[in-house]
């Protein structure tokens, strides 16, 4: 089953995110404030359209649209778009968009390659924990993405010159931890970020070392989401 309207909106989102990316690039190239504002406007329009598409899919499916590879990739891009836009607006840091927009576009492009068929939930996913577990993951992925982008900007500044999942696991699978590949790499990701926060707070880490940790952490996030699914399938694999 596919949704013609949702599909049309999805590809509209794809086009708007691409347009925002190009405008952010032009903003960096020619340093015209109007281009930066235009990029944010297009990104905001894309976010609004994206939200509408996700809601339509949820209504048609009769559940939260967060349970397969297409749906989660789309939501991942939505989360990154939302968090990056909020960061840009709050701190008036338009340059962030030139780095966040390509990542958002790549993720939404990855979603476009996946099957958009709506499938029934497997029994293990028919839980009230689903919405809490996956929605918090989406916002976290968005935040990790922004921290990665900030790390990249910091590392390039000279050249530029300018778990609640375990509780649900016990309910769904009968155990809190089963060493599933996704669980294991989630642990690796958490350890990377926990180390980063510890060193940042207790040892006062900042500058280049902190930026590298932010980038490495997001690489772990991407591998946990895409790499594990492609190379190490398990109970958390999306199809």
SSE topology:
Layout: H1 4-30, H2 33-61, H3 69-91, H4 95-112, H5 129-155, H6 157-160, H7 164-173, H8 181-202, H9 208-231
Helix pairs in contact: 1-2, 1-4, 2-3, 3-4, 3-5, 4-5, 5-7, 5-9, 8-9
Number of helices: 9
Largest sheet: none
Overall shape: globular
Mean pLDDT: 75
Name the structural class. mainly alpha
Strand content is: under 5%
Give me the Rg, rounded: 19 Å
Quantity of strands, as a count = 0
pLDDT < 50 stretches: none
Distance between the termini: 15 Å
| Element-by-element helix/strand order | HHHHHHHHH
User: Which percent range fits the helix content?
Assistant: over 70%
Tally of separate domains = 2
Overview of this protein structure:
- The protein has two domains: 1-66 and 81-117; 127-239, no CATH class.
- It is an all-alpha fold and 239 residues long.
- α1 packs antiparallel against α2 (33-61), α3 (69-91) crosses α5 and α4 (95-112) crosses α5 (129-155).
- The protein contains nine helices and no strands.
Compact overview of the structure:
With 239 residues, the protein is mainly α. It has helices spanning 4-30, 33-61, 69-91, 95-112, 129-155, 157-160, 164-173, 181-202, 208-231.
């Amino acid at each position: 089953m596919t949704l013609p309207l949702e599909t049309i909106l999805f590809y509209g989102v794809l086009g708007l995110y691409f347009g925002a990316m190009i405008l952010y690039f032009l903003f960096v190239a020619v340093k015209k404030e109007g281009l930066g504002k235009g990029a944010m406007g297009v990104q905001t329009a894309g976010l609004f359209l994206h939200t509408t598409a996700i809601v339509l899919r949820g209504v048609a499916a009769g559940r939260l649209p967060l349970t397969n590879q297409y749906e989660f990739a789309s939501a991942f891009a939505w989360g990154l778009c939302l968090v990056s836009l909020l960061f840009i607006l709050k701190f008036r840091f338009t340059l962030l968009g030139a780095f966040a927009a390509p990542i958002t576009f790549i993720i939404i492009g990855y979603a476009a390659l996946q099957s958009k068929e709506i499938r029934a939930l497997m029994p293990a996913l028919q839980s009230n924990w689903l919405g809490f577990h996956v929605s918090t993951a989406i916002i976290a992925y968005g935040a990790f993405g922004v921290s990665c982008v900030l790390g990249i900007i910091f590392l390039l500044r000279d050249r530029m010159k300018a778990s609640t999942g375990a509780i649900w696991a016990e309910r769904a699978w009968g155990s809190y931890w089963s060493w599933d590949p996704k669980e294991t790499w989630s642990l690796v990701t958490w350890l990377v970020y926990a180390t980063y926060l510890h060193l940042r707070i207790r040892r006062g880490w900042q500058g280049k070392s902190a930026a590298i940790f932010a980038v490495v952490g997001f690489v772990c996030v991407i591998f946990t989401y895409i790499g594990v699914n492609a190379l190490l399938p398990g109970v958390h694999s999306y199809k």
